[in-house]
Amino acid sequence: MVLAEIRLPENKSKSSHNLGKSTLARVIDFCLLGGISNEHFLKKRNDLFAEFVFFLELELLDGSFLTIRRAVENASKVSFSLASATQPDLTSLADDDWSHFELPFAKAKSLLDGYLDLRDIDPWKFRNAIGYFLRTQADYDDVFKLQRHAGLDKDWKPILARILGLDASIFTNRYELKAEIDVKAALLASAEKDAKGSETEPAKVDALIQLREADVTRMQNELDEFDFEGFDARKTTAIVDQIDSQIAVLNQERYSLSHSIAELERGLVADKIIFDPEKAKSLFEEAGINFPDQVKTDFEQLIAFNKAITEERVEYIREELASTKAEIARITVELKVLNARRRKNLEYLRSEDVFDKYRMLSAEVAKAAAEIGLLKRQHNTLSDIQDKQRELREAKADYAKTQSLAEWALKEARQDHTSLLYKIREYFSGQLKDVLGRDAILSVSLNGEGNLEFRTDFVDGNELSTSEADGTSFKKLLCVAFDLAIVRAHMEGAFPRFVFHDGIFELLDPRPKMNLLESVRSYADLGIQSIITVMDFDLPSNGDGGFDDEDIILRLHDDGAQGRLFHFDGW
Questions:
Q1: Which SS3 state, helix, strand or coil, does residue 184 take?
Q2: Which distant-in-sequence residues (6+ apart) come within 8 Å of 140 by Cβ?
């Protein structure tokens, strides 16, 4: 235990004491090759810590001892010393006597993973899981998602699944497939947008290409043979069957639309209402006949209603008129194009110059060849869209298959009494029962998208979830119970066997404090090293079951610089 004592009366009412109790976790993390930015306290106060060199000794799973050396000034270089027995002080060890001296940081991280040999979290590295063994105050907000898990779910949920004994590859694969589906869907949408407005059936485009290639072959043969009889016949057919008939249809449409315009313009001339209620009333009075005010009012309302209907009708007519005129303008432009084509074809038929016909037929061949090139590009685009659609369907099918695999794997792990998940849930619930006398559960399920969801809840006698887990003190207990449970469940495997908890007794009542202390001790008896930090005013009772001096590995206090973690005043 790291005990922080408040000895000065004037400091007892303060909420923050800066003794270094919580900072210790960051120092351990630094020694375990945690990243260090310019905002890290060691770098931020380089004037204070530049000459500091930290040493951390670890007992490895095979019983050997590894000392890690890392200096603040040159934090990218790390040294290791491996020995069969503990080495209490290596501060004076010569450079050549280190097993590996000042290795580059990336190589040092890889070597540390090799030394630790934590096969229970393969294929992940030790640093990916360290937050569950080195929990700071900021990591008590959520049992599962730690402060360092600021990224996407795919960056932390699969490794947590691995820790819980599940086949993490299923869930990693699901996240990869989901990302692949999103990419493929975006590429397909982009390709469909580019192809918008063109033919959508590759088979039809194939048929058009075949048709136009036959036309080019025929026309090229006519050019080679200097024979324009077929070309003349096609021009005549184009005039009679195509151009003339289109011109006739468009003229008929223009005539019909012109008639509609005349009718619409007549409809704009609104009928004027000549009845005036005031004049009518005056005439009645002159004749000595009563004209009631209500009748006058009714007439005025009727006239106003009629005007409103007329105005709405006029607005509709104006919109229809504008649309009709726009359609006539379009038809007029199209007729000009068709008449120009008709004149050109007639000029060709009247011409007796074979060289003019040769040039015109050559132009037709070039035009058809260009159309073929366009159709082939269109065909390639449509084929590409079809390929993307197929790939997207296959990816979605694979994703659906992994859903079934995930459901099966989770169901098997929940029901198998020998599975890690079953053991972790048993240890988790058992510890909270011992500490609080309350039932708590740890559940792992799949959400609507088939991705993992982790939950912890306190339940009442009816097995209904309560809101107690939202409280600060209870949430901290949930975190502690979870961390200890996963370490205990992995005791027979290759897994860390220590946990660090900052402020473990804060905000707890006296009885739960004593129960928690006993629970931590029982886990220590199993071979789990539990490092806790405590303020003196949070200590459990000093009666039977309290702390002994041998439990305290470090005392911090506010009575002078020597009582602080780095032996100088707070910064």
A1: helix
A2: 472, 475, 476, 479
Distances (CA, A) of 350 to 226, 257, 365, 419, 421: 18, 35, 21, 94, 93
What does the CA dihedral 53, 58, 62, 63 come to, rounded to 10 degrees? 100
Q: How many CA atoms lie within 13 A of 372 on its CB side?
A: 15
Mean pLDDT in residue range 462-491? 79
**What region does 67 belong to: left with phi over 0, alpha with psi -120 to 50, or beta?**
beta
Q: Is 252 helix (H, G, I), strand (E, B) or coil?
A: helix
What integer pLDDT is reported at residue 441 of this predicted model? 93
pLDDT tens sequence across 499-524: 999 988 888 888 899 999 999 999 99
Mean pLDDT over all residues of the chain? 83
The amino acid sitting at 535 is: M
Contact predicate 81/98, CB 8 Å: yes
- At which residue do the structure tokens 């060289």 appear? 355
| C-alpha neighbours within 13 Å on the C-beta side of residue 324 | 19
State the burial class of residue 71 (Cβ atoms within 10 Å of its Cβ: 0-12, 13-18, 19+).
middle
pLDDT digits (tens, 9 = 90+) for 325-380: 888 888 888 888 878 877 776 665 555 556 666 777 677 778 878 888 887 777 77
What b/e sequence results for 123-153 when a residue is b if at least 16 CB atoms lie within 10 Å of its CB, and e otherwise? ebbbbbbbbbbbbbbebbeebbbbebbeeeb
pTM of the full structure: 0.69
Weakest-pLDDT range from 29-38, 73-82, 188-197, 380-389: 188-197
Asked if the bond preceding 292 is cis, omega within 30° of 0, the reply is no
Sheet holding 53-59: strands in order across? 53-59, 65-71, 77-83, 100-104
User: 501 with 448: CB under 8 angstroms?
Assistant: no
How far is the C-alpha of 118 from the C-alpha of 328, rounded, in Å? 81
Phi-psi label, residue 62: left if phi above 0, alpha if psi -120 to 50, beta otherwise: alpha
Could you tell me whether strands 2-5 and 554-557 are parallel, antiparallel, or unpaired per DSSP bridges? parallel
The amino acid at 329:
A
Q: At what angle do helices 293-350 and 229-237 cross, to 10 degrees?
A: 170
DSSP 8-state code for residue 239: I
**CB within 8 Å of 453: residues ≥ 6 apart:** 444, 445, 446, 447
* C-alpha to C-alpha distance for 181 and 204, rounded to whole angstroms: 29
| pLDDT for the residue 64 | 97
Q: What is the pLDDT of residues 525-557, one digit of tens each?
A: 999 999 999 988 888 875 444 677 788 899 999
Q: What is the DSSP letter of 75?
A: T
